[in-house]
Amino acid sequence: MSSNSHPIRIAIIGAGAVSDYHHVPGINIDPRAELVAACDMSEALLEQRKSDWGIDKVTTDFQQICDDPDIDAVIIATPNFTHHEQAIAAAKGGKHIMCEKPLALNAQQVREMRDAAVEAGVVHMTAFTYRFAPSMRYIRHLVQSGAIGQPRHFRSQRFLDWPETSWGWRQYKKTAGAGDLFDMTIHRIDFAMDLMGKIDKLCGGVAQFCPRDVTTDGESCPPSDVDDWSALIGVFENGGVGVWEGTTVAKGYGFNGFGHELAEINGSEATVRYRLHEPNKIWLGKTGEDVAPVDVPEEFLKPADSPRDPHEGKPADVFRYDLVWEFCSAITEGRDAMPSFDHGLNAQIIADAVLESNESAAWVDVADRLV
To answer: Chain-centre distance of CA 217, in angstroms?
Structure first.
């Protein structure tokens, strides 16, 4: 546990765009946190980050970070296949851990990561960003307070218009686990269960439309073996139902790189809807009126103690900084982070079951698998 005499000293493992875009700005605005080190496979990138991020300590060896007594916590933002080994090493080194999703390549690996963190007594957090969107926080309040009645249907669409060139490590099962399903749909699985409760059973499918056998530079590369479309139908413990669809090849769905995202719940009294590119609004409607935009109330624009000014920056960017706020809050308050590795494990169990359903062409009962 970090003492009050110094800030929480955080190291970034994986110094790429996600860290630069989400995590470092979050550390920089939180007075409880200090970025002290970075680890990456690319020495050139590390040199650049020294000046970008104002740090001196860099290494290509994550074990050095995990063994360093002057580091309290790590944020893991590396390729999926490396998370398992890195998180277990960090736990053994007594470091609090926030890890990008998917937590690993399958639920068994995630379970081992969770167990290592619990055994070490460290805070463990899954970087499920969209839980922190103001609209999502407000919708959760409306659902839990009964404002929309009994939640009946959950619906999620995530459509991106990505080039059909190589995704690098993301396009191979051995390094990514799966494609759109693990990269995009897994977020929506998590927040659906946060809003609706656990899933009892599901059926699902994945498909691949692009070989991705050419790099952005026009070089040939081994073709992809993961999905670029995924979907599932789920039945929740509470009797509600859910439908999810995601694709990275929806032409015309660029929207300045944010793509299209819609998630909604039809309740017995009202419908409520979230859209990623306008995270400070929700859409709400009851019988006799059409679904219409409503501004998210001020108190839901950010967690009360977050150092972020919710009126500064691009709304679809800045809520992501609250991940670090939650991570630091859990560490300083000696409590579990939300969402924890348990939530990452449950989402992984569901995603794995989608692949299982796709193989067996059958419904899969997941009620007894979830934690």
So the answer is: 29
Determine the CATH number of domain 130-338+347-365. Answer: 3.30.360.10
Structure tokens at 168: 């690098």
Domain(s) labelled CATH 3.30.360.10 in the chain stretch across 130-338+347-365
Task: Identify the CATH number of the domain defined by range 8-128.
Answer: 3.40.50.720
Contact indicator for 45, 12 with CB cutoff of 8 Å? no
Amino acid making up residue 8: I
Domain with CATH 3.40.50.720 in the chain: 8-128
- From first to last of its 371 residues, the chain has per-residue pLDDT tens of 444 578 999 999 999 999 999 999 999 999 999 999 999 999 999 999 999 999 999 999 999 999 999 999 999 999 999 999 999 999 999 999 999 999 999 999 999 999 999 999 999 999 999 999 999 999 999 999 999 999 999 999 999 999 999 999 999 999 999 999 999 999 999 999 999 999 999 999 999 999 999 999 999 999 999 999 999 999 999 999 999 999 999 999 998 888 999 999 999 999 999 999 899 999 999 999 999 999 999 999 999 999 999 999 999 899 999 999 999 999 999 999 999 999 999 999 999 999 999 999 999 999 999 99
Helix, strand, or coil (residue 191): helix
Handedness of CA 180, 182, 188, 193 (dihedral sign): positive
Strands 229-236 and 199-207: antiparallel
